[in-house]
Amino acid sequence: MLSIRSECCSFVSSQKYIKICHGATLFKLNTDGCSKGSPGSAGGGGILRDDSGFPIMAYSDYYGDYTNNVAESNAILQEMQWCITNGYKNVDIESDSMIIINMINDHSNVNCHIVYLIGQINSLKRNGNYKFQHCYREVNNLADYLANMGEKGRKYTFFTQNSNIPNELKNWLKNDIEGTPNFRICPKRKSFTFDNG
After folding, report:
1. d(CA 149, CA 15)
2. Tens digit of pLDDT for each residue in 33-48?
3. Where is the signal peptide (predicted)?
4. Burial of 41 by CB count in 10 Å (0-12 exposed, 13-18 middle, 19+ buried)?
5. CA 176, CA 95: separation in Å to the nearest integer?
6. Given this model, what pLDDT does residue 195 score?
């Protein structure tokens, strides 16, 4: 009799928004894409903040019917284009899509449906100091809200000042600025026994 006992995820981890970069102003861009059906009705959104957590811009957009990976890639591309056009060249870009981040960072093969989008992102990243990293969805809640807002509203919306940002986002922004951590709690799973006999 072979018995395997497994206990998993009884930990709590946290991530804070604010990062410190000595010698240069660092900006942080959180992006997200969503698709209701994959493929289905898709939207994207994101928020660019300074190194103190204050918003510079935020947007939500409707993309039409696409897969989640297309929506995630398009959201990154759309915000990178805005950053380059407006002179933001020292930016940490975070997405909760590990698949897309790995494709951009050349850690995995690019899906044929998004090879053009990933190619455009990789071409644009040569225009500045752009770093791509994965974050948990709990840290990406602002961008997630904006992506869903774009999909539901089926329109493009652009925000440039804190006063124009939807009230639902202001508490999340306040928590980020104050350094309140976002928690990811993995419930402890029940133990199980596997018997191959």
Report:
1. 24
2. 999 998 999 999 999 9
3. none
4. middle
5. 16
6. 55
DSSP-assigned beta bridge partners for residue 45: 32, 60
Whose tokens are 């493009």? That residue is: 156
**What is the model's pTM?**
0.81
- Closest Cα partner for 33 from 92, 73, 90, 85? 73
- Tracing tokens 């990933």 back to the chain, one arrives at 118
Peptide linkage before 181 cis (omega within 30 of 0)? no
H or E segment to which residue 147 belongs: helix 141-153
Six token digits for residue 182: 């976002």
Please, how many CA atoms are within 13 Å of residue 169, restricted to the half-sphere of its CB? 27
What φ, ψ does residue 10 adopt, rounded to 5°?
-105, 40
pLDDT over 50 at 194, yes or no: yes
User: Residue type at 77?
Assistant: L
* Tens-digit pLDDT profile for residues 139-172: 899 999 999 999 999 999 999 876 688 888 888 8
Q: For residue 10, what are the CA distances in angstroms to 77, 102, 153, 183?
A: 37, 27, 39, 13
Tell me the domains of the chain and their CATH numbers. Answer: 12-185 (3.30.420.10)
